[in-house]
Amino acid sequence: MLKTRPILRATAAGLSDVGLQREHNEDSFVVLRECELYVVADGMGGHRAGDIASRLATETISEFFRTTANDDITWPFHFDTNLSEEENRLLTSIRLANRQIFERGSRSREFHQMGTTVVSAMFSPRKGRMFVGHVGDSRCYRARNGSLTMLTRDHSYINECLIAMPDMSEEERNALPKHVITRALGMGDNVVVDLQRDDSQVGDVYVLCSDGLSGMVPDQEIHEIVTSAADASEACTRLIRRANENGGEDNITAVIVRIGSNEDATDSADQDRSFGTEDPTMAGPIPSSKNPA
Question: What domains can you pick out in the chain, each with its CATH number?
């Protein structure tokens, strides 16, 4: 008798903190349970424009997913027949967020040149697959079978240099300017979005985060925390605590998605933090000083 493949399910939680050296939080995140959608955005721009940009990104993406749930509206961009429905929804929602941020910045001197990175993931229980779209240096990792894999590629100046010149010495790498990104939402009327698809397995843990986490906590520690935590909420709390212990130089945001099966017991501790910019129970200051190239 053939063994049927278990139907996968996702549980998730998100948390954001100002960090120890910032005055306000320019990160935003969303966990949209009904659409299996998870988003982290890291804003940039003076006079608090960064938090406006990141919030516009998360709100626009989540609202697009809500309104297209029943396929009853006209999409604002061409539907790419070479992509799956899930990829088209991610691509279109991010492009729409880019347009909203760019137009808001174009109309206001206060918000001129504001922008945000974004990493967005949608889980399909039917296909057993995670779809990821991103712009900038906010990341998506996957923990599986004792290792942590980064599914995204930073759109940063230093990363572009390393790709072009992989034999650079450590001294040359250290001389490159840090925190300069080459792609972000809001920098122009159009944006190039990178898309990934990942076949999920029971036990997988996905980590979506801003660089305030990935820049302060080594990958090995991220892996240890997310695989040893009792649930997604605990993993978020421990990751942010560790980033602050290591200096908390930037805003810190993490969304954790754990993959199980419908045969698993429901984890009531997960999915309890679903939308926001900052958890008031977390101590410390906050956000981002990115400079787009």
Answer: 8-279 (3.60.40.10)
